[in-house]
Write a sequence for this structure.
């Protein structure tokens, strides 16, 4: 019997359990009843499935993994729901926040601000920051992002303004090198760039940090809050399962990687790795930009989409949860790009030990290839937390995960104007969704949901 993994409304079936299950599933949805095949069950695909259901459209959603959520992944470990991927949400992110409200999902402030020790690694030493220092650091961040105001004069509209100074072509590294500030503040701003880019700064478009700043009301303080201040108590899985639960006309099939998508005269034929096919008048491709080329499309996708997928976006960092000895306290420490670890924040702490969340924008600098390299992580953490003793590490290697091939979307210099409009442009009967091509909070859960709303609307209009 098929293994039901979520209740309420939609039918979610974990595939590949036994051959018999496949037969049962094929009978369950006749292709002639299907309006759209949705490829990918992250927030974009699942939101689109729910929105299509609300419009009376039937969908089959095929997801490669054994779970929904894609680059969000709540994993229970050591008694805690740990987010290996997307975590933070904020009221300034209108699409995700309306979903949080709709399903009454409980949120919490994280990290806890009371008693939070903030620090920056500068010139090889840890410099603690007073509240006044943090204020000055935020002012420096505002100053760094000031040129972006001309690039994003109306950040919640889709248009990017004209770009006479060529800012869209410049990297974060390029801008940082010409940014003047006292060393500690410069290192703090650089650490923030590492956190936003989550990839090498020379490969990360400066436009990406300007955009976050602009979307947060051109305020460094609000940008920081949007990026890393509020999380879901039970994890992102509660939200995605809530959305999936209302995709009442969607047949959600897990363990169903797609290998080929062919447009025919009358529709779209989607072929799975296991040889099954699903056909429908339309398909919604809700895949990460970096994996588009892993699926064979006939006819080929536009050259821009193929090139973007081959070039990849710059997001390629490493996030992990690190267990260390003793009570480390409530800390938030940033470090510039020459460090292997660029951000560390306490997840839990007591006298028995502490869990830290660790971010590295350049995992090549980490002297660890696997999550079991305790010694490598211990070495990498010393500049931020001298003397710290690492016990264990857990996390997910998104960059080598064939269904992600990267972390969150951060465009390379130039990709904003060259890639974005085409990435979500319909090709025949194929529609496109995903955080990587969202209009506003691109690269965020919010952007994925935004794209789910838009693509469902567009498909419904097309089919009407
Ligand atoms: C480490 C990390 C931290 C992050 N932190 C935050 C954060 O704090 N806040 C925030 O808002 N965002 C964060 N993000 C970004 C956010 O998680 C993503 O932008 C968003 O979840 C992407 O949603 P999506 O639906 O567009 O794509 P995805 O979630 O990638 O969904 C695409 C789906 O397609 C599936 N797929 C791939 N190939 C195939 C195939 N061949 N056949 C069928 N299915 C396939 C995948 O398995 C996946 O489920 C983070 C991401 C990472 C990796």
């Amino acid at each position: 019997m098929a293994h039901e993994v979520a209740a309420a409304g939609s039918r979610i079936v974990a595939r590949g359990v036994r051959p018999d299950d496949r037969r049962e599933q094929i009978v369950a949805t006749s292709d002639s009843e299907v309006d759209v095949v949705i490829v990918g069950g992250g927030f974009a695909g699942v939101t689109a499935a729910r929105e299509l259901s609300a419009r009376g459209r039937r969908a089959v959603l095929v997801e490669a993994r054994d779970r929904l959520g894609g680059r969000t992944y709540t994993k229970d470990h050591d008694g805690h729901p740990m987010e290996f991927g997307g975590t933070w949400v904020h009221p300034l992110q209108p699409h995700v926040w309306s979903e949080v409200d709709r399903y009454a999902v409980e949120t919490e402030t994280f990290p806890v601000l009371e008693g939070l020790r903030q620090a920056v690694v500068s010139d090889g030493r840890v410099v603690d920051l007073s509240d006044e220092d943090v204020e000055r650091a935020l002012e420096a961040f505002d100053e760094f992002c000031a040129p972006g105001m001309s690039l994003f004069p109306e950040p919640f509209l889709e248009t990017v303004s004209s770009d006479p100074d060529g800012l869209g072509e410049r990297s974060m590294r390029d801008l940082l090198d010409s940014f003047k500030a006292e060393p500690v503040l410069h290192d703090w701003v650089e650490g923030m760039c590492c956190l936003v880019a989550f990839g090498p700064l020379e490969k990360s478009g400066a436009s990406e940090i300007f955009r976050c700043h602009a979307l947060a009301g051109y305020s460094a303080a609000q940008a920081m809050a949007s990026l890393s201040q509020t999380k879901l108590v039970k994890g992102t899985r509660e939200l995605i399962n809530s959305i999936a639960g209302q995709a009442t006309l969607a047949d959600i099939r897990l363990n169903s990687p797609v290998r080929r998508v062919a447009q025919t005269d009358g529709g779209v034929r989607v072929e799975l790795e296991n040889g099954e096919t699903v056909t429908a008048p339309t398909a919604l491709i809700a895949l990460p930009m970096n994996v588009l080329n892993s699926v064979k499309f006939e006819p080929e996708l536009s050259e821009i989409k193929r090139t973007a997928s081959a070039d990849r976006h710059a997001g390629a960092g490493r996030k992990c949860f690190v267990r260390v000895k003793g009570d480390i306290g409530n800390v938030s420490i940033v470090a510039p790009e020459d460090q292997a670890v660029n951000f560390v924040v306490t997840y839990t702490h007591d006298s028995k030990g502490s869990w830290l969340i660790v971010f590295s924008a350049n995992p090549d600098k980490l002297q660890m290839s696997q999550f079991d390299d305790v010694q490598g992580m211990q070495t990498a953490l010393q500049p931020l937390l001298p003397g710290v003793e690492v016990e264990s590490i857990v996390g997910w290697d998104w960059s080598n995960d064939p269904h992600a091939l990267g972390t969150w979307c951060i465009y390379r210099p130039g990709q904003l104007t060259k890639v974005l409009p085409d990435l979500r442009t319909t090709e025949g009967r194929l529609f496109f969704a995903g955080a990587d091509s969202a209009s506003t909070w691109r690269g965020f859960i919010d952007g994925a949901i935004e794209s789910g709303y838009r693509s469902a609307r567009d498909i419904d209009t097309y089919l009407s």
The chain has three domains: 3-70+235-312+409-463, 74-94+104-112+314-400, 131-230.
